[in-house]
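User: Predict structure, ligand NAP.
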Amino acid sequence: MYDVLIIGAGPAGLGAAVYGARAGLSMAVIDQSPISGGQVLNTYEVDNYLGLMGETGGGISEKFRAHADKLGTEFIVDEIKSLEDQGEKKIVHGYEKDYEAKALILATGASHSKLGVPGEEELSGMGVSYCATCDGAFFKNRTVAVVGGGDVAVEDAIFLSKICNKVYLIHRRDTLRAVKSLQEKLFAKENVEFIWDSEVREICGTNAVEKIVLYNKKEQQTSELEINGIFIAVGVVPNTDLCKNLVETDERGYIKAGEDCATSCKGIYAAGDIRLKPMRQIITAVADGANAVNTVVESL
Ligand code: NAP
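Assistant: Predicted complex:
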Protein backbone atom coordinates (compact mmCIF):
# COMPACT_ATOMS: atom_id res chain seq x y z
CA MET A 1 0.00 0.00 0.00
CA TYR A 2 1.34 3.43 -1.00
CA ASP A 3 1.31 6.33 1.44
CA VAL A 4 -0.28 8.43 -1.28
CA LEU A 5 -1.43 8.06 -4.86
CA ILE A 6 -1.52 11.20 -6.98
CA ILE A 7 -4.10 11.06 -9.74
CA GLY A 8 -3.25 13.33 -12.66
CA ALA A 9 0.12 14.48 -14.00
CA GLY A 10 -0.54 18.14 -14.73
CA PRO A 11 1.18 20.93 -12.77
CA ALA A 12 -0.71 20.10 -9.54
CA GLY A 13 0.11 16.39 -9.72
CA LEU A 14 3.74 17.00 -10.64
CA GLY A 15 4.09 19.65 -7.92
CA ALA A 16 2.73 17.10 -5.44
CA ALA A 17 5.17 14.49 -6.78
CA VAL A 18 8.19 16.73 -6.18
CA TYR A 19 7.11 17.62 -2.64
CA GLY A 20 6.06 14.02 -1.91
CA ALA A 21 9.41 12.64 -3.06
CA ARG A 22 11.29 15.15 -0.93
CA ALA A 23 9.10 14.23 2.05
CA GLY A 24 10.08 10.57 1.58
CA LEU A 25 6.52 9.34 0.94
CA SER A 26 5.95 6.06 -0.83
CA MET A 27 3.85 7.23 -3.74
CA ALA A 28 3.05 7.06 -7.44
CA VAL A 29 1.47 9.36 -10.00
CA ILE A 30 -1.24 7.78 -12.15
CA ASP A 31 -2.31 9.40 -15.42
CA GLN A 32 -4.09 8.02 -18.45
CA SER A 33 -1.56 9.71 -20.71
CA PRO A 34 2.17 8.94 -20.84
CA ILE A 35 2.75 12.62 -21.64
CA SER A 36 2.61 14.74 -18.52
CA GLY A 37 1.37 18.33 -18.46
CA GLY A 38 -2.42 18.35 -18.65
CA GLN A 39 -3.98 21.52 -20.03
CA VAL A 40 -0.62 23.30 -20.15
CA LEU A 41 0.30 21.12 -23.12
CA ASN A 42 -2.33 23.07 -25.11
CA THR A 43 -0.69 26.41 -24.34
CA TYR A 44 1.61 27.93 -26.92
CA GLU A 45 3.51 30.30 -24.69
CA VAL A 46 3.47 30.81 -20.93
CA ASP A 47 4.34 34.33 -19.83
CA ASN A 48 3.47 34.23 -16.17
CA TYR A 49 5.24 31.28 -14.58
CA LEU A 50 7.96 32.60 -12.33
CA GLY A 51 11.43 32.21 -13.80
CA LEU A 52 10.31 30.56 -17.04
CA MET A 53 8.91 33.52 -18.98
CA GLY A 54 8.18 32.77 -22.62
CA GLU A 55 8.49 28.98 -22.30
CA THR A 56 6.14 26.89 -24.41
CA GLY A 57 3.50 24.84 -22.62
CA GLY A 58 5.25 21.68 -23.82
CA GLY A 59 8.62 22.98 -22.61
CA ILE A 60 7.35 23.78 -19.11
CA SER A 61 5.63 20.40 -18.88
CA GLU A 62 8.84 18.59 -19.85
CA LYS A 63 10.78 20.52 -17.20
CA PHE A 64 8.18 19.72 -14.52
CA ARG A 65 8.19 16.04 -15.46
CA ALA A 66 12.01 15.88 -15.57
CA HIS A 67 12.13 17.35 -12.06
CA ALA A 68 9.75 14.69 -10.72
CA ASP A 69 11.64 11.95 -12.60
CA LYS A 70 14.96 13.10 -11.18
CA LEU A 71 13.59 12.64 -7.66
CA GLY A 72 12.65 9.05 -8.50
CA THR A 73 8.87 9.44 -8.86
CA GLU A 74 7.02 6.34 -10.02
CA PHE A 75 4.66 7.10 -12.92
CA ILE A 76 1.84 4.69 -13.82
CA VAL A 77 -0.09 4.98 -17.08
CA ASP A 78 -3.61 3.69 -16.47
CA GLU A 79 -7.15 4.95 -16.87
CA ILE A 80 -9.03 5.05 -13.60
CA LYS A 81 -12.48 3.43 -13.58
CA SER A 82 -13.48 4.32 -10.03
CA LEU A 83 -12.30 5.24 -6.56
CA GLU A 84 -13.27 3.47 -3.35
CA ASP A 85 -13.00 4.86 0.16
CA GLN A 86 -12.50 2.20 2.83
CA GLY A 87 -11.54 4.66 5.56
CA GLU A 88 -7.85 4.02 6.29
CA LYS A 89 -7.47 2.48 2.84
CA LYS A 90 -8.32 4.05 -0.53
CA ILE A 91 -8.60 1.80 -3.55
CA VAL A 92 -8.06 3.12 -7.07
CA HIS A 93 -9.64 0.78 -9.61
CA GLY A 94 -7.75 1.08 -12.89
CA TYR A 95 -8.24 -0.74 -16.19
CA GLU A 96 -4.82 -2.38 -15.79
CA LYS A 97 -5.09 -3.19 -12.07
CA ASP A 98 -6.15 -1.87 -8.67
CA TYR A 99 -3.91 0.33 -6.52
CA GLU A 100 -4.09 0.96 -2.76
CA ALA A 101 -3.01 3.94 -0.70
CA LYS A 102 -3.52 5.55 2.67
CA ALA A 103 -4.32 8.86 0.96
CA LEU A 104 -5.25 10.20 -2.47
CA ILE A 105 -4.39 13.51 -4.06
CA LEU A 106 -6.86 14.23 -6.84
CA ALA A 107 -5.25 16.41 -9.50
CA THR A 108 -7.29 15.55 -12.57
CA GLY A 109 -7.66 19.16 -13.74
CA ALA A 110 -10.32 20.40 -16.09
CA SER A 111 -11.50 19.90 -19.68
CA HIS A 112 -12.83 22.37 -22.23
CA SER A 113 -16.52 23.26 -22.25
CA LYS A 114 -18.62 22.94 -25.35
CA LEU A 115 -20.85 25.55 -26.93
CA GLY A 116 -23.68 23.09 -27.41
CA VAL A 117 -24.86 24.45 -30.77
CA PRO A 118 -25.96 22.53 -33.89
CA GLY A 119 -23.00 21.46 -36.03
CA GLU A 120 -20.45 21.54 -33.19
CA GLU A 121 -20.43 17.80 -32.54
CA GLU A 122 -20.86 16.82 -36.19
CA LEU A 123 -17.97 18.99 -37.41
CA SER A 124 -15.63 18.32 -34.49
CA GLY A 125 -12.23 17.53 -36.01
CA MET A 126 -13.46 18.88 -39.37
CA GLY A 127 -12.90 22.53 -38.57
CA VAL A 128 -14.25 22.63 -35.04
CA SER A 129 -11.37 22.54 -32.55
CA TYR A 130 -10.75 23.15 -28.86
CA CYS A 131 -6.97 23.40 -29.13
CA ALA A 132 -5.30 26.08 -31.23
CA THR A 133 -1.77 24.85 -30.62
CA CYS A 134 -2.74 21.31 -31.65
CA ASP A 135 -4.78 22.16 -34.76
CA GLY A 136 -3.80 25.71 -35.75
CA ALA A 137 -1.30 24.56 -38.40
CA PHE A 138 -4.15 22.99 -40.42
CA PHE A 139 -5.48 26.52 -41.01
CA LYS A 140 -2.35 28.15 -42.42
CA ASN A 141 -3.32 31.23 -44.50
CA ARG A 142 -7.01 30.57 -43.93
CA THR A 143 -9.80 32.33 -42.04
CA VAL A 144 -10.80 31.19 -38.57
CA ALA A 145 -12.92 32.29 -35.64
CA VAL A 146 -12.14 31.99 -31.94
CA VAL A 147 -15.08 32.00 -29.51
CA GLY A 148 -14.66 33.26 -25.94
CA GLY A 149 -13.22 36.20 -24.04
CA GLY A 150 -10.98 34.58 -21.42
CA ASP A 151 -7.22 33.96 -21.28
CA VAL A 152 -7.45 30.86 -23.44
CA ALA A 153 -9.50 32.52 -26.20
CA VAL A 154 -7.15 35.52 -26.33
CA GLU A 155 -4.02 33.32 -26.27
CA ASP A 156 -5.50 31.18 -29.03
CA ALA A 157 -6.35 34.22 -31.16
CA ILE A 158 -2.81 35.60 -30.75
CA PHE A 159 -1.33 32.24 -31.71
CA LEU A 160 -3.63 31.83 -34.72
CA SER A 161 -3.01 35.39 -35.96
CA LYS A 162 0.55 34.31 -36.73
CA ILE A 163 -0.61 31.40 -38.89
CA CYS A 164 -3.93 32.45 -40.41
CA ASN A 165 -4.80 35.24 -42.82
CA LYS A 166 -7.70 36.39 -40.73
CA VAL A 167 -8.92 35.71 -37.21
CA TYR A 168 -12.33 36.74 -35.84
CA LEU A 169 -12.63 36.88 -32.07
CA ILE A 170 -16.29 36.37 -31.20
CA HIS A 171 -17.34 37.27 -27.68
CA ARG A 172 -20.75 37.38 -26.06
CA ARG A 173 -20.02 40.69 -24.31
CA ASP A 174 -18.13 43.84 -25.34
CA THR A 175 -15.22 43.48 -22.91
CA LEU A 176 -12.75 40.67 -22.60
CA ARG A 177 -12.23 38.72 -19.40
CA ALA A 178 -8.59 37.92 -20.22
CA VAL A 179 -5.70 39.51 -18.35
CA LYS A 180 -4.81 43.01 -19.65
CA SER A 181 -1.34 42.14 -20.96
CA LEU A 182 -2.83 39.48 -23.25
CA GLN A 183 -5.60 41.84 -24.39
CA GLU A 184 -3.01 44.45 -25.39
CA LYS A 185 -1.08 41.91 -27.45
CA LEU A 186 -4.27 40.89 -29.23
CA PHE A 187 -5.53 44.42 -29.89
CA ALA A 188 -2.21 45.14 -31.65
CA LYS A 189 -2.80 42.37 -34.22
CA GLU A 190 -3.88 43.79 -37.59
CA ASN A 191 -5.46 40.61 -38.90
CA VAL A 192 -7.72 40.13 -35.89
CA GLU A 193 -11.30 41.45 -36.04
CA PHE A 194 -13.55 41.55 -32.99
CA ILE A 195 -17.20 40.60 -33.14
CA TRP A 196 -18.72 41.79 -29.86
CA ASP A 197 -22.00 41.00 -28.11
CA SER A 198 -22.48 38.00 -30.30
CA GLU A 199 -23.25 34.34 -29.88
CA VAL A 200 -22.57 31.50 -32.27
CA ARG A 201 -25.93 29.89 -32.97
CA GLU A 202 -24.90 27.25 -35.52
CA ILE A 203 -21.82 25.86 -37.22
CA CYS A 204 -22.49 24.84 -40.82
CA GLY A 205 -20.67 22.82 -43.47
CA THR A 206 -20.56 19.53 -45.31
CA ASN A 207 -17.49 17.55 -44.24
CA ALA A 208 -15.76 20.79 -43.20
CA VAL A 209 -16.71 24.06 -41.52
CA GLU A 210 -17.90 26.56 -44.11
CA LYS A 211 -19.76 29.23 -42.14
CA ILE A 212 -21.29 30.08 -38.78
CA VAL A 213 -24.56 31.70 -37.86
CA LEU A 214 -24.17 34.58 -35.40
CA TYR A 215 -26.67 36.42 -33.26
CA ASN A 216 -25.88 39.96 -32.14
CA LYS A 217 -27.63 40.38 -28.80
CA LYS A 218 -27.54 44.21 -28.77
CA GLU A 219 -28.81 44.67 -32.31
CA GLN A 220 -30.95 41.52 -32.11
CA GLN A 221 -29.78 40.53 -35.56
CA THR A 222 -28.71 37.25 -37.09
CA SER A 223 -25.89 37.11 -39.63
CA GLU A 224 -23.61 34.59 -41.32
CA LEU A 225 -19.83 34.53 -41.40
CA GLU A 226 -17.74 32.45 -43.79
CA ILE A 227 -14.81 30.75 -42.07
CA ASN A 228 -12.66 27.64 -42.48
CA GLY A 229 -12.28 26.77 -38.83
CA ILE A 230 -13.63 27.62 -35.42
CA PHE A 231 -11.71 27.39 -32.14
CA ILE A 232 -13.96 27.15 -29.11
CA ALA A 233 -12.49 28.51 -25.86
CA VAL A 234 -15.48 29.11 -23.61
CA GLY A 235 -14.09 27.88 -20.33
CA VAL A 236 -13.55 24.61 -18.61
CA VAL A 237 -15.37 22.01 -16.54
CA PRO A 238 -13.61 20.19 -13.70
CA ASN A 239 -12.80 16.51 -14.23
CA THR A 240 -14.50 15.32 -11.09
CA ASP A 241 -16.65 12.47 -12.41
CA LEU A 242 -14.48 9.95 -10.54
CA CYS A 243 -14.94 11.49 -7.14
CA LYS A 244 -18.16 13.48 -7.11
CA ASN A 245 -19.87 10.80 -5.01
CA LEU A 246 -17.02 10.77 -2.48
CA VAL A 247 -16.34 14.45 -1.88
CA GLU A 248 -18.42 17.60 -1.63
CA THR A 249 -18.49 19.79 -4.74
CA ASP A 250 -20.20 23.03 -5.72
CA GLU A 251 -22.97 23.12 -8.32
CA ARG A 252 -20.40 23.30 -11.18
CA GLY A 253 -18.50 20.25 -9.90
CA TYR A 254 -15.49 22.01 -8.33
CA ILE A 255 -14.33 20.19 -5.18
CA LYS A 256 -14.80 22.10 -1.95
CA ALA A 257 -11.39 22.22 -0.25
CA GLY A 258 -9.40 24.95 1.41
CA GLU A 259 -5.75 25.86 0.95
CA ASP A 260 -4.77 22.66 2.80
CA CYS A 261 -6.53 20.82 -0.05
CA ALA A 262 -8.46 18.60 2.41
CA THR A 263 -11.85 17.57 1.04
CA SER A 264 -14.96 16.51 2.93
CA CYS A 265 -13.64 12.91 2.80
CA LYS A 266 -10.81 12.10 5.23
CA GLY A 267 -7.65 11.11 3.37
CA ILE A 268 -8.73 12.55 0.01
CA TYR A 269 -7.18 15.82 -1.12
CA ALA A 270 -7.92 18.02 -4.13
CA ALA A 271 -5.19 19.99 -5.89
CA GLY A 272 -5.18 22.28 -8.93
CA ASP A 273 -8.01 23.23 -11.26
CA ILE A 274 -10.50 20.77 -9.76
CA ARG A 275 -10.45 22.64 -6.45
CA LEU A 276 -12.93 25.44 -5.75
CA LYS A 277 -10.72 28.55 -5.63
CA PRO A 278 -10.56 32.03 -7.13
CA MET A 279 -7.51 31.67 -9.38
CA ARG A 280 -6.61 28.81 -11.70
CA GLN A 281 -3.07 29.24 -12.96
CA ILE A 282 -0.04 26.97 -13.34
CA ILE A 283 1.57 28.55 -10.32
CA THR A 284 -1.50 28.06 -8.11
CA ALA A 285 -1.85 24.45 -9.29
CA VAL A 286 1.77 23.70 -8.40
CA ALA A 287 1.25 25.39 -5.03
CA ASP A 288 -1.80 23.21 -4.40
CA GLY A 289 0.30 20.12 -5.06
CA ALA A 290 2.81 21.23 -2.41
CA ASN A 291 0.08 22.13 0.10
CA ALA A 292 -1.74 18.84 -0.43
CA VAL A 293 1.44 16.87 0.30
CA ASN A 294 2.08 18.94 3.41
CA THR A 295 -1.40 18.05 4.68
CA VAL A 296 -0.89 14.37 3.82
CA VAL A 297 2.41 14.31 5.73
CA GLU A 298 0.73 15.87 8.80
CA SER A 299 -2.07 13.30 8.67
CA LEU A 300 0.02 10.10 8.32
P1 NAP B 1 -12.66 31.51 -18.58
O1 NAP B 1 -11.68 32.42 -17.96
O2 NAP B 1 -13.74 30.94 -17.73
O3 NAP B 1 -13.32 32.28 -19.82
C1 NAP B 1 -14.32 31.68 -20.58
C2 NAP B 1 -14.79 32.68 -21.59
O4 NAP B 1 -15.77 32.06 -22.42
C3 NAP B 1 -15.44 33.92 -20.96
O5 NAP B 1 -15.06 35.07 -21.67
C4 NAP B 1 -16.93 33.63 -21.10
O6 NAP B 1 -17.70 34.79 -21.31
C5 NAP B 1 -16.98 32.82 -22.37
N1 NAP B 1 -18.09 31.86 -22.38
C6 NAP B 1 -18.43 30.99 -21.43
N2 NAP B 1 -19.49 30.25 -21.81
C7 NAP B 1 -19.82 30.69 -23.04
C8 NAP B 1 -20.82 30.33 -23.97
N3 NAP B 1 -21.70 29.36 -23.72
N4 NAP B 1 -20.87 31.00 -25.14
C9 NAP B 1 -19.99 31.97 -25.42
N5 NAP B 1 -19.01 32.36 -24.58
C10 NAP B 1 -18.94 31.72 -23.41
O7 NAP B 1 -11.96 30.21 -19.23
P2 NAP B 1 -10.56 30.00 -19.98
O8 NAP B 1 -10.18 31.14 -20.81
O9 NAP B 1 -10.69 28.65 -20.59
O10 NAP B 1 -9.55 29.88 -18.76
C11 NAP B 1 -9.74 28.86 -17.76
C12 NAP B 1 -8.85 29.17 -16.55
O11 NAP B 1 -7.48 28.98 -16.89
C13 NAP B 1 -9.00 30.61 -16.10
O12 NAP B 1 -8.95 30.63 -14.70
C14 NAP B 1 -7.79 31.29 -16.69
O13 NAP B 1 -7.37 32.42 -15.97
C15 NAP B 1 -6.77 30.17 -16.63
N6 NAP B 1 -5.73 30.37 -17.67
C16 NAP B 1 -4.64 31.12 -17.36
C17 NAP B 1 -3.67 31.35 -18.32
C18 NAP B 1 -2.47 32.14 -18.00
O14 NAP B 1 -2.34 32.58 -16.88
N7 NAP B 1 -1.57 32.38 -18.93
C19 NAP B 1 -3.80 30.83 -19.60
C20 NAP B 1 -4.92 30.09 -19.89
C21 NAP B 1 -5.89 29.88 -18.92
P3 NAP B 1 -17.90 35.90 -20.12
O15 NAP B 1 -16.63 36.66 -20.08
O16 NAP B 1 -19.06 36.67 -20.58
O17 NAP B 1 -18.17 35.09 -18.88
